[in-house]
């Protein structure tokens, strides 16, 4: 394979290599796959850049007499010996360095250039480990992973089999993944990869940006990607209830002369800041303007904790006395520790260490405050009868919002209509569906108060113009002012056509540019079902049979045989299903579709209620998967 002059290794080194190999060889087959080689070297404390690993793999495969692309322990030891030889040791070096809590490592992703240095925060790793250890402590499916050690790299290897990621997604957004679909036993490389595909597609469906992450990255335990994905998943859960329709007591945060619409337009971060200042004002303390510089002395946190404890004693007769003596401590790190000891009395010592407070780590302090709010909002009860009823976002609105956020639009869309009123996000979506945008025509924030809305309106007019003249959307009766004013009917009409084009785009690519219409998708569905002997034909995307999810499940079985566990599927008597059975089938089918690799944004309710728009996207995604598989 490589060279002569092979370095001999000691018995101790050999035992270390065996231990590293066994950690990767989870199914105890005696082999690891070629794509696991980089993580295997890392486990053996011999980290290599991605391009070097690929060179080794190519050389190995060329000389692999079995042509199975599997690496035995003996073959791994041979590769390791040659790499340790003098000829090769000069070309490799340790790639991990540590500096002030920041870890850097060399490596390649598909979007980075050779030699790129990625870095990650050791503080974030520790915070996430502690949060996950507590959140999933009682989950039997995570017993093989937890508790993780916050002081080593176990977080990055914990995502290898996909189970933890799936569980974290369900923790943040319950019922996103049907847990019957998660592989928890006999975790071969293939079954772990299935879990990771399921996790990534499900993360996308709840609004996480995963466009530059694939299962290989997670199996390799790339720290910056693992931490980035986990932060997005954790944040979705932390922010879920920081929204007025979910917590109407937030109306207490209205300022004099302010409209409810303006309060509802605020992001979760802005609402949290306002919540903290609401309590600080009640305490007669200095308010803050950020979660970095302004909280370093812990003063705001002491008064916040005191106000929470006072409110809960008044409202619920729960007595927790906050010891404020820590404010007299001159050493800020010691003061932060005393403050966190008080937070622990409210069961809210999470995400931050004293050093994270005194250094002003804005991300972790935001998480600390969000968790504190979720546990103890300490707001007065609002008599909602005195106010207009607050409607939460519809399922359709949530689906559109998660879809666009998963594509990485900026800024993140917290509220569908207020987030689109300046046209910028819509224009970014056009680029995602290959509609060119002349950014010289686009007004960028910050918008001046005087004439600012006119600038936003110009962007919206341009967005409608592109839809009509370039994308050839049907936008009858829709003008830029409708988007600018946040008209639900008009905004949803434009978004649907953008999402439909995005979904169909992959089919056109697979079909050599052929324009794909609804009838082509419908014909493909029925043809595929009939070819596999299925009798669940559908007449349209409004067919009532779709409410049972049986056509979807049969289609998944047709294009990915062996995926469906038929004992999980309800068929009913004479094809008649109860509502609960329909919902169970729908949950199962959506998760199955994501598990095989279809990036599905439709919700189970869309199938049960036969929402034709979302049903179309479901079948289109499955068609895309089926055609890709056929073209391999």
Give an overview in words.
With 632 residues, this protein is mainly alpha-helical. Helix content is 51%, strand content 3%. It contains 27 helices and 5 strands. It has a 3-stranded antiparallel sheet. It has a two-stranded antiparallel sheet with strand order 1-2. Strand 3 (96-99) and strand 4 (102-106) form a beta hairpin. Helix 8 packs parallel to helix 11. The longest helix is centred in the last third of the chain and has 23 residues, at 488-510. The two termini are 30 Å apart. The model is unreliable at 1-6, 86-99 and 106-116 (pLDDT under 50).
Q: Mind sketching the topology for me?
A:
Layout: H1 11-24, E1 31-33, H2 37-43, H3 50-62, E2 70-72, H4 73-84, H5 86-89, E3 96-99, E4 102-106, E5 117-121, H6 122-135, H7 154-158, H8 163-172, H9 189-205, H10 215-219, H11 223-239, H12 260-264, H13 268-282, H14 299-316, H15 332-345, H16 354-358, H17 362-375, H18 395-406, H19 424-432, H20 452-469, H21 480-484, H22 488-510, H23 518-531, H24 550-559, H25 579-596, H26 604-608, H27 612-631
Instruction: Report mean pLDDT, rounded to a whole number.
Output: 87
Number of helices, where a helix is a run of at least 4 consecutive DSSP H or I residues:
27
Question: What's the arrangement of strands in the largest beta sheet?
Answer: 3-4-5
Instruction: Give helix % range.
Output: 40-55%
What's the gyration radius in Å?
27 Å
Outline the low-pLDDT stretches.
1-6, 86-99, 106-116
Report the count of strand segments.
5
Shape: globular
Estimated share of beta-strand residues? under 5%
